[in-house]
Amino acid sequence: MGLTWIPMISVPSAQAVIEPELEKTVLDIIRQHPEVLIESVQAYQKQQQEQQQQFIQSFVSQLKTNPQSIIANSPTTGSLTQKNILLEFSDFQCPYCQKAYETVKEFIENHDEVTLVYKHFPLSSIHPQAMAAAKASWAAGQQGKFWPYYDALFTQQENLGEELYLDLAKNLNLNINQFERDRHSKKAELAIAEDMKLAEKIGIQGTPLFVLNGQFFAGAVPLSTLETALSSMNN
Predict the structure, then answer these.
(1) Is 181 buried (19+), middle (13-18) or exposed (0-12) by CB count in 10 A?
(2) pTM of the predicted model as reported, rounded to 2 decimal places
(3) Are the beta carbons of 226 and 107 closer than 8 angstroms?
(4) Most buried among 72, 97, 193, 195, using CB within 10 Å?
(5) For 24-47, what is each residue's pLDDT tens digit?
């Protein structure tokens, strides 16, 4: 099948209006040869999938050989060796993340050889408090209190809001002025955006998502699944 050439033109600005005759010509070509458009879309989708797979392979490799390049400035708890890494992409207002929270807590308590790393992925379109909670936790982390703040946000998920964010900061004896500056800062936005960018490159569309030693698990993963994954990697 031969492809029909569609002429390209340069425009003086993004606001330039397409000439009616050219628009009609393009639309006529698409109507007469819809298979060309379909093939183009399919080729683009295939290219995107291949690029994503390449990124995931690189991501898994880095996680094994140079974990700090993936961890970056994210909060960590558990083992300091970073030999077994459980990466958590999560949203503080997500009910499935709250359910997974108890599982992860038990798993980390049972395995002091595992390093837990938290990555923010607030789904703001469906969880109106997700971004604010993420920023508040990040601000708590600037004073060394990310993990107790993380615990409190998940155990009190039904109360997410300004009152809770400030109450938790006070209960943890944070410097409130610094906390307020940090959670409303550009640095907080950039840190969370960096996590979200990584999640999007991997292809994450929902939360929670866990990566344990290169294996991916979506949703409120059972404790037994994490136990099996850890055991298989260390045998």
Answers:
(1) middle
(2) 0.77
(3) yes
(4) 97
(5) 777 777 777 777 667 667 665 566
